């Protein structure tokens, strides 16, 4: 693989776009704080690390955070342990509901089955009624509200009502299996459980009444089960549940009035998110209200250049942190554009149709979606009017170099493409877009402002031009407050700080580029190590997925003859055969596009590849199955039956 960096940019922002953007305005404010000129993003980033207190203080001011700040910005500056704004008092929902007028707050489509829009005034009214109903159900500061909902307006309103009371919100999507839901919500003991009566996917009506009854029976802490109508069966589903009530009945006693807000300390728990759980019961990651708010405001306004009235779309579910990120765009007075269902139903172009109709300014999706559009031959640049679109963001897995080309050739030529990477662990990004700088093929543009991101070798030395561990060397506000049920912090420290004490080690295999950007090479804990050479699986996928017959692939390291050999499993298009000719083409492509070291020792065909519910392929689970080890939590997988395809394969014994 050629050394990343230094090629011709795919896109440069026009000078007038840079000059009129939020980041330029922020940089002028930063210059006044710093008392010196800051002439580039790199200089601004360096200042944000050298003077973190001044930087985060300025974020509070520039973004107009509502609340009492207090005097101190940062104390106990260690990881873990650092405390930002220790004297502040804020309410997360108060910062998102800063408008209450007739303009549009959110738009929703459930495939082609439902369509709604809510004004800011209607959103405030719904939040008010939910807030009163939750309070009447006994929900107060620190109590948990759990939601198993589609990406619909009631989900956002429920989160805001929960946060307004100082309670903690946790969610998953309704396609989770019974065990997957209980492995998550069973740990956090919610007081109220809210679910839809079902959902639509790929035009199919999916009823979940039986699953709901089984889940509710296993959550003894729950005092009310509220059923939100989506299929029109909320009353019937609620009637089956001993503590069930349809949403209409839950809200009936309450009239809308101004929402009230409980202001609480900066680090008050807001969200509980979950690790993917492929190596055991999911870890419950607790995120604080203040850190989440500041980080999302920074990312939206500075890195994504979101302004009041913008229309922000992300294709996500409530089982992925990008939903939490999307909801926060309300704090920048943007309209959030919600979609639930299959991104290819009722037609392959449904999301581009939606983006055109709603004049979306930020189109957020996954690398997998972009690759699927490329393989389907979609060309929205010629079929759709995307003139309002300024930014395309991609995350979930590394964006292949060819997908960068596809965006500029077939989606929009003059658009800021930002590959972003961070995670559930920080409910935000380590590296993401810089709207003032060029976009280079295959590169994430920059480290996030205020984020002391680096790449370290095995022995803890910063490295340039070679691969290593993605680390963050200084504390930042959106570090988890704690893990749930981890009273002495042992699990929390083990997750991020065991490798390099006092330094956040994220578990990603990364490399700085000659342009100052970054390439993520996949998870370091799923990294292949044949002959002692570390190989990122994303580099293999980037080559294999250019082969027309291959739909997708998964690579693992198999322990073999006192070493590790690379085994590649491929899922092929109907009618394609994994014959000697195709195997040779795959190997040649990997050899020339990546390196001879990347060429698999074995290439095998499988009918399906296991993935998590957020769409990520699960290399560790496949690796465990191949080595005869149990996969501890198959409920974390969207298609656990696929694991059986990898058991006892004779071809892996030779």
From TrEMBL:
<dbReference type="GO" id="GO:0005524">
    <property type="term" value="F:ATP binding"/>
</dbReference>
<feature type="domain" description="AMP-binding enzyme C-terminal">
    <location>
        <begin position="545"/>
        <end position="616"/>
    </location>
</feature>
<dbReference type="InterPro" id="IPR042099">
    <property type="entry name" value="ANL_N_sf"/>
</dbReference>
<dbReference type="InterPro" id="IPR020845">
    <property type="entry name" value="AMP-binding_CS"/>
</dbReference>
<dbReference type="Pfam" id="PF16177">
    <property type="entry name" value="ACAS_N"/>
</dbReference>
<dbReference type="InterPro" id="IPR032387">
    <property type="entry name" value="ACAS_N"/>
</dbReference>
<keyword id="KW-0436">Ligase</keyword>
<protein>
    <submittedName>
        <fullName>Acetoacetate--CoA ligase</fullName>
        <ecNumber>6.2.1.16</ecNumber>
    </submittedName>
</protein>
<dbReference type="Pfam" id="PF13193">
    <property type="entry name" value="AMP-binding_C"/>
</dbReference>
<feature type="domain" description="Acetyl-coenzyme A synthetase N-terminal">
    <location>
        <begin position="41"/>
        <end position="95"/>
    </location>
</feature>
<keyword id="KW-0067">ATP-binding</keyword>
<keyword id="KW-0547">Nucleotide-binding</keyword>
<dbReference type="InterPro" id="IPR005914">
    <property type="entry name" value="Acac_CoA_synth"/>
</dbReference>
<dbReference type="InterPro" id="IPR000873">
    <property type="entry name" value="AMP-dep_synth/lig_dom"/>
</dbReference>
<dbReference type="InterPro" id="IPR045851">
    <property type="entry name" value="AMP-bd_C_sf"/>
</dbReference>
<dbReference type="InterPro" id="IPR025110">
    <property type="entry name" value="AMP-bd_C"/>
</dbReference>
<dbReference type="GO" id="GO:0030729">
    <property type="term" value="F:acetoacetate-CoA ligase activity"/>
</dbReference>
<dbReference type="Pfam" id="PF00501">
    <property type="entry name" value="AMP-binding"/>
</dbReference>
<dbReference type="GO" id="GO:0006629">
    <property type="term" value="P:lipid metabolic process"/>
</dbReference>
<comment type="similarity">
    <text>Belongs to the ATP-dependent AMP-binding enzyme family.</text>
</comment>
<feature type="domain" description="AMP-dependent synthetase/ligase">
    <location>
        <begin position="98"/>
        <end position="472"/>
    </location>
</feature>
